[in-house]
Amino acid sequence: MQPILNSASDLENWEDFLTEAQKLHLLCMETMMGADGTLADLKRGFGLICQAADLGDVDACEFAGSVLLDGARGVPRNLPQTYRYLRAAIEAGNMASHALLAQVFKENGHLNESMKHWQAYFTHTAQHLRDLSEEDSRRVSAARTAGKYGRTYLSLVSRAVAVDAVDPVHFSALAHYVSAVLEAERSSLADSNATTAAKAIMKRDLDLEMEALQRKCGTGSSAGS
Hints:
Layout: H1 8-12, H2 20-33, H3 42-54, H4 58-70, H5 79-91, H6 97-107, H7 111-131, H8 138-158, H9 168-172, H10 175-189, H11 196-217
Helix pairs in contact: 2-3, 3-4, 4-5, 4-6, 5-6, 6-7, 7-8, 8-10, 8-11, 10-11
């Protein structure tokens, strides 16, 4: 969502290059986090992000869809509205929204459609990471997102919530990032304030997800792809 700047004078007035939707998106983030000595206002901030999404801001569509999918930040869960925003994001080229829309279809019992969107996400992301150089700043964000959504997919597969139908070639290209997320989660368990019983359940889930990763990509290949 960065404006295109051509000179130092442009930099001084960069807000002039933003669309109304982008300005609303920025205002939303400031409102939700609290800025310039003001208190955070999650409800008003989310209302602004929905306005930005309605005006066509693609990042706002993805963000609004993710919040409505989980019912996070004090916002009630709303799958029909989630679908509307994520579909708009995908049509505008936001491929990460495929992973979120896959979860919407899963929640509604449309497992075949869910798997199609998981496949679209992993196929695009594998190619996207191949196209980005190691020095490209976008690579870090794409890799982090790939690890997060790859772990979400493995969680569904390991618990038999979904039947694994994603092409292993594309998923294997992301295995390193998924493995890093699982290992980081495993390391954080030691410092968790959770009860012993809760830690045991979390460790069991992590073990199942790591086993699913190794089955998907071939034993021993999960961390080195």
